[in-house]
Each structure stands twice: as C-alpha cells, then as structure tokens.
Records
---
Amino acid sequence: MRVLGIHLAPLVIPLERRLQTYAVFHHVSTFFFLGISSTIFMVFLLFTPLCWLVLPYWAWYIYDFNQSSRGGRRFEWARRNIIWTWLRDYFPVRLIKTADLDPAHNYIFGSHPHGIMGMGAFSNFLTEANGFSELYPGITMTLLSLKLMHYFPIYREYIMALGVCDVSKESIQCLMKRKGQAITIVIGGAKEALDASPGCTRLVLKNRKGFVKLAIQTGAYLVPTFSFGENEIYTLVNYSPPGSRLRELQRKIQQKVGVAPIVINGRGVFNYTLGFLPYRKPITTVVGHPIPVVQNPFPSQEEVDEVHDRYLSELKSLFDEYKERCGFPDEKLEFVD
C-alpha cells in the first residue's frame, strides 16, 4: 500500500522477517548513534549527583585507553550471538571461499568496497554468522577500524567484544606477533564511501600502499576480498561525481574529521521508501587466494610497488571471475587515487 508516495510495509509479516529487521535496526542504530549518544550520556552524568556511578568506568577508560592497539578484548559469545544470523539472512549475506589458508602464516585481508558501513566485512569477518572459523580453521580474524571509533565510551567496549582493534601500525604489529592471525582492513576507508552508490565500483586503491608495506614488514600474506552488492544497500542522496565542487568540499571535510559527509537513504522499519535501514539486497563476499609475501623489515619502494601491483591484478581477476555469478555481469572495476 502507498500513502503520499510512501510504500508502507504490510501489517502481517512472518516472525522470521521481523527478527531480521530487528537485527538490522539494532546494528545500524548502534553503528550510527551509540558512540555519540554514549559519550554525551557518560559526560553528562559527571556533572550530576550520579557522577559516582560513572567515575569507576572513566577510571577504567583511562587505564584501558590503548587496549585497541594491544590486541583488543574479544569474546566468542559476542561473535556467535544469534542476532548476527538474523542480520545475515536479512540481505542475505554470503561468503565464498576460493582457497585454504595455512595457519602457519599470518594474513592481511583487503576488504573492498567500503560501502556505507562495510556490511559484508562485518557479517563475514567480525561475526560467525557464515562460519568463518569453520571455513578457515586455525585462523583468528580481527577487523580493524579507525582509532577514532575507540574513543567513544561504551561503544569501544562493544566493538572490542566483537573483535575490533584499531588500524594503527602498533596494533597491526601486535596482532602479527603470533601465527594464524588474520586482520581485515577496509582499505578505501571513508573516502571510498563517497562512491558508495548503486552501479558504482570505484575503489580508492591506486596509491594506497601502506597495507602492502606492513605486509612485507611483518611477512603477512595478502588476501584480496570483494563484497558484491555492498554499494547497493543504500542510495546516496547527495552523490556528486569526481571533480565536482561538492565532491571537493566533501573530500576536504572527510580529510579534516575522518568521516565522509554523506546523506543516505534506505528504507524504514514500517515502510520501503524512506529511512536509515539498508535495502534487502544480497551481498556476496568472495575471499581470494593468498598472495605470498617475503618478509623484509626495510622494504624498498620498488618492492612495495611490485607487491601492490600484484595485489591489484589479483583483485581485478577475482572481480572479473565472480561478478557474473554474483549478479553484476556488466559491472566494471576502477582503481582511483
């Protein structure tokens, strides 16, 4: 039924679909609002008679501030919560394995594209909804995010429980000390979110080589991954093409604050036209073959460039091989600065 151009959801919906919508509402609300709201709440309480309730937490916060750079604090029960299977089935999200990973090595997964919130990487690498640990036995996966995300009180505890650490050099070197470790980096970052629009596959990867240098320094193998459908789950209301004045303004703001200034539209809880929930569009994450890397604590620029070129080639081959079976036969992959 439509009212004033808004497509309303039917009143009678199977319980299974309601649970899926609840899971997505929980995740999206947490992603967008928990960090800011928890910070405001915890700071506000400091200036009330109830400050004694939060002072112990703030003391812990200061003591534990750099834990996200020291391996984090993951809990398997958080990663295996049933809510993540509901989240997976909402789209649905799939995971395709193309090769085994030897636990005798460490791995750096490059996750592409960033999209609005990296739903494919979250579902497949940060939770056990698709059985990552069973597909890759002996591999412990950690997803890396901006250090900024770990500044927010309460929210930092939530994401660390799932296995999130920050993307600093110190954090990566700490995680790579033990064998059988894998980290996922959403390489395009917030800059790539400016192109998170349906029909667009533009990856900010042409000159991003820091992850390659770290792979060589630590001896970690590189693993390209691509999530088909990641850019289809939201519409960018303020999408602007590269080179436009609005895009340049967005780039400058993103460089200053670390977050892309975008306006998105999806669906709502009770309608299919307006809202901040993602559309029900399938997402398929394909994990490519590992690229062997010879460890060198002091790699030359030529060595970094060579491995980077190999990574781009492997990623493009992975994209071209799977795009048709994942529903994007005419999609073209573009690497940009």
Note: The first helix runs from residue 15 to 45.
---
Amino acid sequence: LSILNAIEKLMPSRTIRQHILSFLSISTLPAIMVNSFSPQILTTRYIAKPDAKSHATMIIPRSSTLLELSTKEVIITDFPPPKSAVSCPALQLLMEIDAASLELTEVSSIEESYFLPDEELIPIKQISLEEQLNIKMSPSASTNMAVSKPRVVGHRGSLYQSLENTRHSIRLAANDCEEVEIDVFLLKCGTLTVFHGSGTDKNPGWLKEYCNVEGTILDYTYEEARKLKFNQYHTEFGCGPDTIRELEHEYYIPTLEEVLSDAKQTGVVIKVELKGPGTTDPVLELVERLNMVDQVHYSSFEHSRIKRVRELHPERNADGSHTYKTGCLFNEVPDNFVELALNVDASEVHLKYSTATKERVEEIHSAGMDSMVWMRGPMGMVDDLTHRFHDVGNEDERMYSTIMATGVRAMCVNRPDVLKQMLIGQAMNSRTLVPPMI
C-alpha cells in the first residue's frame, strides 16, 4: 500500500480540542475496516459529526477503499456534501498515515467541514462467507462437517510461522503440506529468484514496502538482491518483527535452484507461480536439469505463460493426466473462465477463496480439471474478515470448513499448520464414529 491521505478532527469546542490533542499523542489508530468502493472525486471534503457515536467513515483519494475508523466525532468523505449537510466552522486537521505501520506522520489543514444528520450515515454491509460461496453450513458446523479433504498447500511457505518465500519458511511448510506455492522472477542477470513484493498481478515485485528500497526486484542483479534486508515492520509479513529479527541470518532472497534443491530433500511438491516476464523457459530448463518434473507445478495470472508450458510439453501420463501440471490463476472470475483455462490446456484452475462458489468448483471438475483456492496475503485477509464476512475468523477452522464444503480439491493457505491439524482431527473423529464390525 502507498501512503494514504487521511484523517480528521473537527469541532470548535475546548473539550474537542483536548480530545484531538490526546488523539495525536498516540502512534497508532484503533481498528480499521475496509470495503470496496470506487469514487472518482478530485476534491476532498470532510463531514463532521458532533454527537459522539463511535463511528467515522472516509473515502480515500486516489484509492478504491472505504474505511471505517472506530474513533468519534467525525465522518470524512470525498463526496460533495449532501443537501442535508450544514456547513460549520471547525478545527480542521489532516493527518497522513503510513498504511503499512499506521503511524501518524504529518498534520496539516483542510478546507471544509459539515454537520451530517445521523440518518444520512450508510453502514458498511457484511455477508456470510457461506452465502458468498453459495453453500449451507450448520450454525454449529465444525471441522467434521466439511465434505472434502483437500490437499494442503502452503501460501509462500508458512508465512505466519516464518518469513514468506524464504528457504526457512518453505522447509517449515513441508512439515504440514503436500505442496508449497512460491513466486518466481527472472532477474536481469539471468538468475531465477523466489520473491513476492508489492504491486499488482500485472506489475509485481516492488521493493519499497518489502525491503525499504526503491524499484522492483527486476532492477537488481542477484548479487545485489541477496544483500537486501527485509522490512521487519511490514504488515504483510505475518510472522511479525520478532521472528524476523530472531532469524535474520536465515532470511534472504533465495534462488529458485536453492528452493528446489531443498524440496528435493523434503519431497514436497513446489507450485511455481511464474510471477515475472521471461520466467517460463528458464524455469522449465532448471526443473528438467534437476530431474524434478514430477515435483514441480506451474501457475500464472498471465495465462500466456501457462500456454507456453503446454506448447513445450504436451506429454501425458498413462492415466491421461498432464505430465507437466499447470494452473490458471484468476483474481476476478469471468463468465468464461473454464473456457479460458481449457484454451491453454491447463491442468488446474486456481480461484481466490471468496470467488470459489460450489457451482464454479463443480464446473471446473466437470471440465476435467483440478481445483484450488488461494488465500489473499495477511493484509488482504484482514480486510476481508474485518468488513466483508461476519461468520468466520481469519483462516480459522470455521473458515476452512466453509471453503471445504465447496468440494475444492486443494487449498493454498497462509496457515497450513492449522488446516493440517484440522484435517488430522477430522480423520480421527471419522474413525471414532465408525461402528465396530460384528
């Protein structure tokens, strides 16, 4: 996330001024909830609410997020004021917040503020994940009620236990996972490296938030990238700053060859997301040189890279399955997503967990392909669970059970240890319920 222009405090009274000064003395904000929104507003207007319910909303300029802050007195929005809003003089403060650390970094003035009647407030709507995925779970659903036993895939390793996409995290994930997903770039020196970075699926690999340096991983040689230090306070790093400090000697950007050599010893399957341009051919060459064709799968949001794998390797096993396994990644799901996957002869379809409805999963299987859901990174999951889905926790057993009820065959999760233990418990309970033979 970039630095967001944000926040507030309005009202002319001495009491409110004192409250503002008290608020400014803390270094972090209370709870933040985010909801999808897309205003196209060039000016910024702020709406003040004086009668102190613990509620404040703001639409951020140049962003597509609506934030609700558990502070008082203020409603903040980019929209021009509604007719019901009444202009009021006010003490006006604008603070800049670093979205990664939520530290208050700057205070400056703003121009406009308004009273807004309570009835004009629009609450953020939440739904249940089971409603989103079009399934029905019992109110007391537990791990035993899930209908499938998916393969456990570690997302970037085991990122809540160890720093993502490092050798340490991937080796740790091998204890709980059949498969581990990693992200791969081809650097300008020709080295394949394992890294995620900030940015979008179309423009990934940015370093500022990950390593406190400018540019993308593609701007560096491997010798330079190896020396980069991770930003221990980046909130996308689920393992937290204490773990990063404690294991600093273990945490560097590894080469793909190092990661694959480790996997060859542990036996875990590696799902390589072809993250950067030019990755397909050299990754295939490396896998073949290491004799790991059966232990490496390939995926990408850029489906032309998957198509390239199949063009080079159309081979099939005796059972008709592809020798080289590929997966089409989708963020938003078009109506013809199965057709798109079939057009590049993919083995699997990988859907974001919140889009993997039971009907879509069944459609994938009916087309002869395998299915996998993937979780967002830690910050994205917090966004979803704070304001989108009210019935599940952040990758807790309830969430995993709900997803499993779609019938999906693999789950790429941030907490593979939790999913693994849940499946073990499910299997033990299932054996306990089997009646004795007479």
Note: The first helix runs from residue 14 to 24.
---
Amino acid sequence: SPTLFPNEYVLEFQKCLDATETLEWEVIKGVIEKELGGKPLSTAFESVDPIPLASASIAQVHRAKLLTGESVVIKVQKPKIDEALKADLSFIYIASRVLEFLQPDFERTSLSAIAGDVRSSMLEELDFEMEAGNVEEFRQFLVDQDLRGVATAPRIYREFTTKKIMTMEYLNGVSMLDADKISQITNSNPESVIVNALNVWTTSVTTMPWFHADVHAGNLLVLEDGRVGFIDFGIVGRVGDKVFRSVSELSAALAEGDYREMAQALCNMGAADEAVDLDRFGADIEKVMVNLNSVQPEMTVTANQDDGSVMGSLDFDETEVTGLLLDFVDVAENNGLKLPREFGLLVKQSLYFDRYMKILAPNLDVMNDARISLDAAADSSAGGLPPSEVLIDV
C-alpha cells in the first residue's frame, strides 16, 4: 500500500505480485493431493500442466482439465507460507508496539494499529475459500446489474476448492494491453472494451461492499466474445462513507479542472495535523496531473524475418503506475496530509484504467462521453457500505 510504506519498499514489494520463483511440480502436486483428502490427482483431474501459468509470493497457478472435460486453473498455496507470514507479521506488530513505547510520538500515527490491521488482512488472504466467495459474489453482482453480456468472472468449482487450493474456470483471453488482438476481437472498436471494463468496475465500487483492487493487465482479460474477464480477487478494498463522499467531490473537481477544490476534497478525506494551505496544495496537485497526462504508452516494433511483416505493440511500465501514485501520496504528505490506505488502492486502479485508455482509446473523453457511467458513482449513496477496510496482498 503506497499510503503506508516508503516508496522504495513499495517498488520492491511490487516484484512479489506475479513473478516470484516457482516451486517444483512435485511440491505443488503434493499440496493438491493433500487438499483433496490424500487422493491422487487422477481422481479429480484428467490432466494438470506441471508448468505454472504464474507464480506469486503466496501461490502459483496451474492449468488443468477436470474429469468432466472442463478447462480450469488451480491456484495452489505455497507450503508453509502461512507459518512464515504469521511469524513475520507478528514480529512487525511487536516491533511497532516497542517503537511506540520507546518513542511516544509514534503513538499518534497509530503504528501498532496499522500493523495489526495489515496482519489480519494478509492472513485472511491465505484463505482461498474466502477469495472464492469474493469471486462468486462478483459473479452475482454481474447478474444483478445485468452485466453478464459485457463482463464475467470465473466459475468456482467448490468440490475442488479448500483453504489452500482454489479450482476455477479457465478464461481464454488476451491482456488489456494487446491493442491489435482486441481490435480484431471487437471489429476495430477497442474503445468498447475499456468503456465496458471501466463501467463494470465503477459500478462495483458504488454498489458492492468491496471492489476489485488489483486491475493490472494480467487480471483483466478480453475474451474471444469481446467480454471483459475479471480474475484474481485476492486483493479487495472497502470504502467507507467519508472516503466515498470525498472521492465524489474529487471527481467533480477533476471534471472542472479545479485543483484547489481537489485539494479540499483530499483534506476532507485525510487526517491533517494542522491547517493545510489549499492554494499551495492545489498547485502541487496540478503538477502531478500534468505529469500524468504527459505519460504515453511505449510502442515496440518487431519484424518477422520469415515473411518481412512488421508488427507493433503498445505497453506501459508497471512501475510507472506505482510511481505516479507515489508522487500523489508524496504531495499529500508534503502538505501535512495523511491519506487513508483505501484511497491509495482506488487511485491506483484509476491509474491502471488511465493507461488502458491511452492504449485502447486515446481520444476518449472520460468526463463527457455518454457511454461512461461515472455519474452513478457521484450520485450513489454509500450509506450501505461497511466501515473502511482494505485487504492487502504481500
């Protein structure tokens, strides 16, 4: 969480999301069979690919096929990761209490309370049955909002899901960054994909108790039928009334280009030790927004030596998104304001969507395009939302 950890820590932690060292297949196979009650893989799966699709700090993912023929993926928790996390996070909590005792000034930062909250949130993420529930709740949200025609999430196979393995439908799609293939899928209308993805996500923020808080390109897939597939619900955020109202004020100020009002909205959201100079704060925000708007996706051109064809692809640096968020957090803290962690998660997702729009719909006017339902977010009441809470990935 960029609102909690120093910049250099955030950039390093980011490397643990989906590119960590993989475990040997025999180790992973042992975990799956143990979670199946000691039965061999063949009692549940026709086949399992021993080469993982992805590996993160907590788990790695393998493709498989059920005996009934369905293509699935199995998310497998790495052995003893729960013990390591409990030990490390308990140490951090105890250390924070010691620091508060030795340096009373730390008490006003609620250091130990934050450490305790992070510990609880991370340990909850080890429960794949809870994540499976998130996926199923999101699927029901799509039904309730009549959005199944534009988006989906994988079906969960509960009979092969436990606290340490999760078996779900395999969604065959391309990354949100693959502009060429998306253009082919949508008959040269890639704008429709990003509009649908943004509408689904913003509607979930305003109508669900939580929102998907990790919409990087690997977790948003464009399927062959043009729908957007949302995957990996290990990181979700919850927004309370105060933050929700302030985000609505911030959106309205952003639409007007009023940086002073943006500063005021952020002050309404965060905790300040003293009065904030709104004019100075607004000027600092303007600088960050100028930097945001000046960033453009990188184009890579490759030539096929066999037939002489040339292909181009658009991409953006993952650290660039995090860097922009860190700049935003720095500006707030330099003006005496401490922003809540859930706001950091919201802003980072917004930055992801900003990057996607630069690639798929560079001429799209988010604030004035009638296809985009941001007004629902501004008008919606957050009265039904639970207290602010954030679940944070390691």
Note: Residues 81-102 form the longest helix (22 residues).
---
Amino acid sequence: MNLLSLGTGSTFSRTRRRRFVFMLLMCNVLASIFIFFRVVKSHFEEVYKGHAVLPDAFVFITMQPLSTSMTVWAVKSLIRNGGWTGDVFLLTDFDTTKDISDGASCLRELVHDAKFANVHLISVPKGKNPKHLKAQVFMYIPERIRNVIYMDSDVQVTAPLSSSPLFSEEVPRALFSLTTGQTVAGVFLDAAGHAWGNCTKCDVYNSGIMLLDRHGSEEFLREWLLFQQTDAHTEDQESLEDVVNKLGVKLSILPYKYMFFQKDVLRHIISWVMWRRRPLFVHFTGLARMSASLGVCDHCDKSLPWTSWGYRKVLEDISACPSHSKKHPV
C-alpha cells in the first residue's frame, strides 16, 4: 500500500514538474514574441523617422474684430514646437501698413521677426466671413501650393511634426486618397467626450484642422461654400456634414489620438502617465468665453464663468505679442 502511494505521489510530482516546465516555456515564448515585436516596432520607427510627408503649407485665418494674439500664438507654436520651416499663409483683413490697432501691430511684429520669415500675410476683403474663407483658401494662396493643412487659430502644436507617425503614416495615406479622388479632405472627428482616451460619440467632423488638396478638394470646397452661405447653417461643421452627405463623398479620418481638446484634462494625464505620449495638436475650444482682459478676445464675456478657468489659467500671463505680454512672450 505504501509503495502504491509512493508511486502515485511520484507520478503526481512528475506531472506538476511537467506543467511547471510547460508554463515556464510558454512564458519564455510569450516574452520572446513580445520582445520581437518591440524590436520590430522600434526598427520601423527608426526607418520611418525623418521620412515624414508634410503638406506644402499651413493656412490660418484671422479677421476683425477678433484679436490676432491667439492666431499669432498658434503660428508660433507650429514653427517653434512643430519645427515647421515651410510656408505659412495667414489670411487677414487687417491692414498692417496703416492700421495702428493692437491686432495689426501684433501681425507686424510677427512678419518682421526674422525667425518667422516663412510667414506670409495675405489680404482679403473686409467683412469676409472667416468660416466661408475656409472653403476659399486656394483662391488666395499661390498656385504652386498643391496641398495645405488649414488650422483654426485656437489650435496649438505641441511636438515636432516630422517625428510624428501622423505624418509618416496617416497623412501620406490621406494625401494619396485625395490625389486619386477616393476622398476630398482629411479631418479629425469631433466628439462629446475624450477624457478616457475613447472618442465618445465620434460622429461629427471637426473643421478646425483640415488636410486639403487644390484639385482633389476643388468641387467639395465649392459646394461647401454654397452650403455655408445658406441660412440653414449657423456652424461650418453642420454644413460640412451636409455637403459630404449630399455629394456622397468620403473624408479621410485622421486618428483622434493626435488631437486633444484642451478641456480634456483627464485624457492628457492618462496619456502622459501610461504612455508618455503628448497629443500633436491641442484644440482650445470655447474662445468666446475667455476674458477680453487677456488680449485674446476683444468682444467676449468679461464675467469669466467657471467654464473658462482652464483657458484663463493657460493664457493669463502669456501673450504671443511681446508688446502685449504681461510677463514674457510665448
């Protein structure tokens, strides 16, 4: 009986050892697979590093009576943080040769600064609706410019463009689709919330950043302008959705992880703590709630409701224009 028990125990021990060895081998295999993919990923990141496909130019719009300070701040973030050295076209109805307003002087300081020699002011007729101008950018910029990224004045660039996978992976695909007629523009999706890293109810096109092609976007932009000019649309994003549906065209959707909204503080924290990842673009929405005393908005609510706290905290001591700065320029 004891011998039988001993034999059974030995068999059991051998079974446990085999299971243990098997689990150890599986762990080694999984670890090897993980390391392999990390090495491959790093290799391809190194291969693609410096192979970014960038647009021919960036375009901004700043119109009276809005302050130009935020626009200049956005342009400086593109050049300083984004490392952009190509053309920047700034469509404006400010007369920088005669106008002595703060807005015009802010633009003069920008274009006369040798560090921003690639910024070009382009005059547009006074009274133009800036939202309509989004659909007319190719009417005003040189014909040699084939494709652009349009950016709202409340969008900031936080990291180098050339090292971002957005420009080595996503933008090349979007440009190919544009030039071959598969899509008419590249956009991010807007959402009800982004705080947890998920794009909740991502069903609206965000027109704050748009990748456009002179020929591939031509018909779409013409129709979009007509839609915006009807009384049925108060927001350019509403008309954008309608014209896409009417024409039956497609847009290239750029991954939302590259654009955060400034108010999504929790998403910023999670992304940085877990992945050490910063968004490439930060969208400062809700500018109408900022204080006129900040030199950012000349006609907005001075009551400073709690919803504007984040914007005020970021901007209260910083101005894009040295002559307007309270402490130091951006």
Note: The two ends are 87 Å apart (CA to CA).
